[in-house]
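[SOLVED] Predicted holo structure with nicotinamide-adenine-dinucleotide

Edit: marking solved, answer below. Original request kept for reference. I posted the sequence and ligand SMILES and asked for the 3D complex as structure tokens.
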Amino acid sequence: MTRLPTELVDRLRPSLHGKSCCVTGGAGFIGGHLVDALVSLGARVTVIDDLSNSDAGNLAGLMDLEPDRVRFVHASILERSALEDAVEGCDLVFHLAALGSVPRSVEDPGRTWVVNATGTLRVLEAAQRAGVRRLVYSASSSAYGDNPALPKRESMAPEPMSPYAAAKLAGESLCRSWSACYGLETVCLRYFNIFGPRQAADSAYAAVVPAFVRALLAGQAPVIFGDGEQTRDFTHVSNAVAANLLAATVKRSLRGEVVNIGGGERTSVNTLAGLLSVLCERPGIVPDHRPERVGEVRDSVADISAAAELLGYRPVTGLQEGLSQTVRWYRQEIPAS
Ligand SMILES: NC(=O)c1ccc[n+]([C@@H]2O[C@H](COP(=O)([O-])OP(=O)(O)OC[C@H]3O[C@@H](n4cnc5c(N)ncnc54)[C@H](O)[C@@H]3O)[C@@H](O)[C@H]2O)c1
């Protein structure tokens, strides 16, 4: 599903072929694409996921194709013995399991903290006990909060504005401290608004790209919270996958470094709605503006030079190409569109 450039695949394959990996949250949106890529690169993958925000459809297909190389542990990362089972014998852990969505965290901060912060602590403990070499943590650009400086640089002081951002930031601190105290290699990838095929479109907590596409394909107005002039760095999922694979294979030793993973391009929500209405062939639909939501930041765009320097990261799919590919996928998946 995620297409990576051939020269990148050729570079990554020798380091990942035959490696044992655990992907927490591997049934989810980004995790599912990462699992596909790892399997196609020859790795053995164990997924642990409680399916609280996903289903096992993608994994079931992979397990049919590669029964010896894909294993699924249906459990929460908060269940110690299941987690130990999932990471046993692994060289690498990709930690993606989390409760996403800023609004959900505002409604239920305690649950967000337990899964996203305590859950990360548990994954680090299990990884260290199992002798894992490196853990790649899915962090979030929400850590920057409303600091007005742009682009966002890792040297900026974090200013989390929501329980989600606070818990994801705590995960970064835990990763760095596990590297310092226990020698487990860790690296934190601060994603900026990832979108792409298979991202959940049908929940109240849907991210903006799938929510807009779903509305537009149904001939409805996309809902914009606020004036729509807030900006984001919308980043195709192939870029997050490439970043994870580079972070797992880079030769230098890693000690909790934090790097931005984005496309490096700043787009307003109004512009996004315009681009998607053209791609969905609904150019006349006027967005429905509603009041701004609590905890949302105004502007965000990544400086990706640290990821380039540390990991050799550069975006593999641009915004326009990524949006076209994503709309094509939803057209096939959403009936009667
Ligand atoms: N999508 C984005 O734009 C974005 C941006 C920044 C950071 N992130 C981070 O990337 C990671 C993946 O996000 P995603 O967009 O793929 O979300 P997702 O919800 O599709 O994937 C998360 C997966 O974790 C699973 N999960 C939740 N709680 C669990 C638990 N207690 N035990 C085991 N599994 C559990 C869910 O069932 C789901 O399959 C998350 O850590 C998220 O915080 C995502």
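OP edit: The pocket of nicotinamide-adenine-dinucleotide is lined by residues 25, 27-31, 48-54, 76-78, 96-100, 115, 119, 138, 140, 168, 191, 193-194, 207 (CB under 6 Å). Thanks to everyone who chimed in.
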